[in-house]
Write a structure and sequence with these properties.
mainly alpha, single chain, 84 residues
Length: 84
Amino acid sequence: MATRQTAAEYSAAVVEAFEQWLENRAYIDGQGNYHVKEPYERRRIAPWNKEVKRAFKTVSVFHDAAHAFQEAGGTSDRGRIWQQ
């Protein structure tokens, strides 16, 4: 079982990924790459794709971490990461 991290331990890129995932603006393709629906035209691979894939073993683990982050009240507030 993975250890839970606090939001302060997540990079700004991972926090951005969480927010976009939770807002249904991000998705994963058949090859395991994350994409953002907007504002990136032509649905290019998300700028945080590699970091998220390194940090989370599966999309399910990433999904669960995003929801745990949300439940804990996490937000980047445009760069300001919350701390407990």
